[in-house]
Amino acid sequence: MSGFDYISDPKEIYNDSFAQIRAEADLGKFSSDEQEIAIRMIHACGMVDLVDDLMFSNDAVTSGRAALADAGAIFCDVEMVKAGIIKRLLPRDSAIICSLNDKGVQENAVELGTTRSAAAVEFWQKYTDDFEKSIIVIGNAPTALFHLLDEIAAGHPKPALIIGCPVGFVGAMESKDALIANDLDIPFIALKGRRGGSAIACSALNALAGGLG
Amino acid sequence: MSGFDYISDPKEIYNDSFAQIRAEADLGKFSSDEQEIAIRMIHACGMVDLVDDLMFSNDAVTSGRAALADAGAIFCDVEMVKAGIIKRLLPRDSAIICSLNDKGVQENAVELGTTRSAAAVEFWQKYTDDFEKSIIVIGNAPTALFHLLDEIAAGHPKPALIIGCPVGFVGAMESKDALIANDLDIPFIALKGRRGGSAIACSALNALAGGLG
Lengths: 213, 213
Prior knowledge:
The structure is a homodimer.
Chain A: H1 10-24, H2 32-45, E1 54-56, H3 60-69, E2 74-76, H4 79-84, E3 96-97, H5 105-112, H6 116-121, E4 135-138, H7 142-153, E5 161-164, H8 172-181, E6 188-191, H9 198-210
C-alpha cells in the first residue's frame, strides 16, 4: 500500500530506537534508573552525545519518583512542556500546571522588570499547600530557573525535584550551572550548556514516571 | 533583589540571543528571509550548527507566507507543536489543528498497522476544503511525514508548505530525505538527520509568521 519502506509498528519503533541509543550512547556513568531517563531524553532530541552534558544529583530519581507516587504537583515553565507530559504514565493524578498565562503575570513581569516566564514562577505556590512534593520542569526559560532559585534562597519552600533544561544563548548555561552547583541542596536533573528545550525536559519527566514502558 | 546576576529584560534577551547567533552561525547560504527562520530555529535548540542540516526549497518562504496571509490551516503532528505556535504572530486567524486525539484515530492506527501519528494524518483533509493552502508542521513522528507523502503520491492534494522536523533514530532521517528529494514538488523546510523536535518545528512556523519581531 505504501510507496515508502519504513517501520510503522509503534512497538518496533520504540524498541529499535532504544536499542540504537543503548548501542551508541555512553551510559556507563549512570545508574540503571538514570539510564532510563537518559535514553528517553536522547530519544526526544536524536543526539546520543547528550550524555556528556547530562547531570543527576544523587537523590534525583528517588525524590522525583516519591513525589509522583505522592501525587505531587508538576509545574511547567511553558505550555509546550505541559503538552508533552504523558498523563497516562503518571502513577497518580498529579496536577500539571503552567501559570504563564495566569491573570496578573504580565503585570507582575512589567513590575519586576523580568520575563513573563520568571514572573509566572511567583504564582506557583498558590496552586499547592505542599510545594515540597512538587516537581518543576523547565524546558524554555533560564529566567524562570534563576527566579525559582532566588525565591528558594530567600526562604521559599524547595520542590522535590527540578528538571532544568532551559535552552539558548542568554542565561541558559549559567542558570543550569547554578542549579548543578546545588548550593541550595535541591534534587535535580540538568542538561549543561546551551542545549535544552521542552521536548527534552518533558521526556525526563515521562521517563521518571514510566521508565521505558 | 536577586542573588544571581542575569539579564532579565525580555527584549534584551532576544536581541542578545539573535546577535550571538548571527555572530556564530554560518548563515551565508540562506536568503535574508531564510536567515530569519534559521535564526529562530537555532534559538529554539541552542545549536548554531543546525544550519549544516537545514534545507529550504526555493519557494518555501514565499509559499508558506502566502498560505498564512490567506488564513490557511496549520496541521501539527503532535499537541506539543500546536502548543508552541504563537498565535499573535499569525497574520490571519488560521485554524491550528492536531488530530492525534480525534475519535477513531487509535482504531485507524490498529487497522493500518501504523502509529497514531500516521493514522491521524488521514483525518486532516476533513478539517478544510482548501488543503492546498494549509501548512504542515511535523516535529515528532517520521511515520506522519511518510504517511502524508504516500497520500500525496496517491493523488491527495498537496499543502502549501511542509515543515519537516521529525526527530529520532528510526525513520526520521529517511523521511526527511524523502521530503528533500522532493519528487512530489512540495515546498518544504526540513532538518536533515536525526535532530528535530517540536520546539524546532514550531519555531520555523513562528518565524515564517512573524520574522524576528
